[in-house]
């Protein structure tokens, strides 16, 4: 049976991520990397997707799930009349040592006596590759043509069928059992589980790793717990070998149940750069910010000139080819087909991306480390490219699948690209075509003011000549395109904050990206959580001069905290019934939360 999206937590090791539900089942896991084909995919096909479940036989047990304090170790407790059992899920980490990718699942009886069942049924390569099951002394092996997994078990396993291994056992007070899933070579024997003392030591080392990392967090404000959870998630979504951060660890979770708005987010969007670097720097994580900039620098070095042509997304390894495919053999989450892997947006023209990228480079150069001359020459070529191409229509930040348009957000971010390029060149005295950059920057500004402004709506609208509002324009004061108290910005804020029935985008703090039916796709979607936090920040900045706006910012922020799941995690969207929708958990939402919390807390702290 499909679980609500919000019923899941995540564990990981900065190479890959697994989703574990409150029902004790890991229903999504890609291996060895976060964008590799799935091994467990019951999240997208309950019958054929594969899962790894450790849970009581009694389906009526009460459940509670939480993270071990200040870590990414997930704990699920089961309660019934027989007793209390705790399931600890984590991928082991140790400071200074690279550990092989493994999932540890340790189940421990706290009180009483509880009957348990473990079942492991992988479905390799999104369920497209068959595998051979071999039971052995220390557990089981699962061998597919391209990948082998070992399941080490402290209880003897039985063959469920030709594809799965299982065991049923009784846990009594103070007893524990351990199950470890790991990759292995085709001829490698399944290793035994470690002794209790060794397993306990690895657990504590993993606790120390996460707490040691989090101790560098500089935020001490009002919403410390929520900000730290967001930081811990962003670290999980970082691909350590390259420094890239994926948008989400999942693919094809629907934006509307039963609909076809199902996309693959296991990639890195260059537009996330500015928000990622800003969030990490605000929290004091300079190393992570630097790693992301290194990832960008490595990509530009491999694509001399401007051969990337404004490419929007890349794999965690920096590859540009991620062709979109449909898995016709899977039914999709709660019947939401099609199931897509890959993302056709990689071939779209989205001209805003250099704005976000240049903003991140400017922040990095200012707060972390000066960029090199060689990197600057590659940046300079791309800014010249912006001068040549900013007037072209594009597909926009929301990756519209309809005709390309002159999106106002894209024009603003082209202005940002030129503005940050000019600032960076002046700060470092780098050689640059300054006169042209300044002239084009000013042309963009004048054009946005004349063609992006809709006097009838008293607001900036989605594209030139459009009547539609767009929540992406909330970032205008955040990127210093416009003063937060400029009458035009206040007019845009007021228009967006109206109820959708009155032409606005906001329903009780939940923000729609844009009105329905304007994106070239069938069906509706939920509200966009990231946009709600953008609204908080826009109101916060305006609130420094208009106190009522600051009050509204705090109310909306604290309402939004109530839409997180039980672990403090957000999906991409929220439905009209308050359910999580879209890929989960989403980095962009948590980046926006961090930025909103930081700025709101700072302004509130400056109040008399």
Description:
This protein is α+β, with helices and mostly antiparallel strands and 608 residues long. The protein is 32% helix and 21% strand. The chain has a 15-stranded antiparallel sheet that branches. The protein has a 3-stranded antiparallel sheet with strand order 26-27-28. A hairpin with a 5-residue loop joins β13 and β14. The longest helix is centred in the C-terminal third of the chain and has 21 residues. The radius of gyration is 25 Å and the shape is globular.
The chain-level structural class is: alpha+beta
Biggest sheet descriptor: 15 strands, antiparallel
**What is the rounded distance between the termini?**
54 Å
Tell me the fraction of residues in β-strands, as a range. Answer: 15-25%
* SS summary, helix count: 13
Mean pLDDT across residues? 93
How much helix is in the residues? 25-40%
Low-confidence stretches: none
Please tally the β strands and state the result: 28
């Amino acid at each position: 049976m499909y679980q609500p999206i919000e019923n899941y937590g995540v564990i990981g090791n900065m190479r890959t991520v697994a989703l574990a539900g409150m029902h004790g089942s890991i229903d999504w896991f890609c291996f060895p990397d976060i964008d590799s084909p799935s091994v467990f995919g019951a999240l997208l096909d309950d019958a054929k997707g594969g899962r790894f479940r450790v849970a009581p036989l009694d389906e009526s047990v009460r459940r509670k799930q939480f993270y071990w304090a200040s870590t990414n170790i997930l704990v699920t407790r089961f309660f019934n009349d027989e007793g209390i059992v705790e399931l600890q899920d984590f991928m082991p980490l140790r400071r200074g040592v690279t550990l092989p990718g493994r999932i540890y699942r340790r189940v421990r009886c706290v009180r009483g006596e509880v009957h348990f069942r473990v079942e492991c049924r992988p479905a390799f390569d999104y369920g497209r590759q068959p595998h051979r099951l071999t039971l052995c002394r220390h557990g089981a092996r699962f061998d597919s043509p391209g990948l082998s997994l070992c399941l080490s078990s402290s209880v003897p396993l039985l063959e469920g069928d030709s594809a799965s291994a299982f065991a049923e056992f009784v846990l009594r007070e103070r007893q524990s059992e351990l199950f470890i899933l790991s990759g292995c070579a085709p001829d490698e024997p399944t290793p035994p589980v470690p002794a209790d003392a060794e397993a306990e030591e690895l657990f504590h080392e993993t606790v120390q790793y996460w707490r040691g990392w989090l101790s560098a967090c500089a935020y001490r404000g009002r919403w410390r717990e929520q900000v730290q959870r967001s930081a811990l998630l962003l670290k999980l979504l970082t691909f350590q070998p390259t420094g890239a951060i994926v948008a989400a660890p999942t693919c094809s979770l629907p934006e509307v149940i039963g609909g076809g708005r199902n996309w693959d987010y296991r990639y890195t969007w260059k537009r996330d750069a500015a928000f990622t670097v800003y969030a990490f720097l605000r929290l004091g994580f300079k190393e992570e910010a630097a790693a992301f900039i290194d990832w960008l620098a490595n990509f530009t070095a491999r694509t001399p000139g401007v051969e990337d042509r404004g490419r929007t997304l890349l794999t965690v390894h920096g590859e540009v080819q991620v062709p979109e495919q449909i898995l016709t053999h899977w039914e999709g989450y709660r019947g939401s087909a099609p199931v897509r892997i890959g993302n056709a947006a990689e071939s779209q023209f989205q001209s805003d991306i250099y704005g976000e990228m240049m903003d991140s480079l400017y922040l990095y150069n200012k707060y972390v480390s000066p960029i090199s001359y060689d990197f600057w020459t590659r940046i300079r070529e791309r800014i010249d490219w912006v001068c040549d191409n900013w007037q072209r229509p594009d597909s926009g930040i929301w990756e519209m699948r309809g005709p390309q348009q002159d999106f106002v957000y894209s024009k603003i971010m082209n202005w940002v690209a030129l503005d940050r390029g000019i600032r960076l060149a002046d700060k470092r005295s780098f050689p640059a075509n300054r006169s042209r950059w300044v002239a084009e920057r000013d042309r963009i500004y004048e054009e946005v003011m004349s063609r992006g402004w809709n006097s009838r709506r008293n607001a900036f609208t989605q594209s030139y000549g459009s009547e539609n509002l767009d929540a992406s324009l909330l970032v205008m004061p955040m990127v210093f395109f416009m003063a937060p108290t400029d009458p035009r910005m206040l007019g845009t804020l007021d228009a967006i904050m109206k109820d959708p029935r009155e032409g606005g985008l906001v329903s009780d703090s939940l923000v729609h990206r844009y009105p329905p039916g304007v994106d070239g796709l069938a069906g509706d979607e939920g509200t966009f959580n990231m946009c709600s936090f953008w609204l908080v920040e826009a109101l916060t900045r305006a609130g420094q001069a208009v106190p009522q706006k600051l009050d509204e910012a705090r109310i909306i922020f604290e309402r939004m905290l109530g839409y997180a799941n039980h672990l403090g995690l957000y999906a991409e969207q929220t439905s009209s019934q308050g359910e999580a929708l879209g890929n989960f958990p989403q980095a962009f939402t948590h980046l926006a939360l961090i930025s909103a919390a930081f700025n709101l807390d700072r302004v509130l702290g400056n109040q008399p």
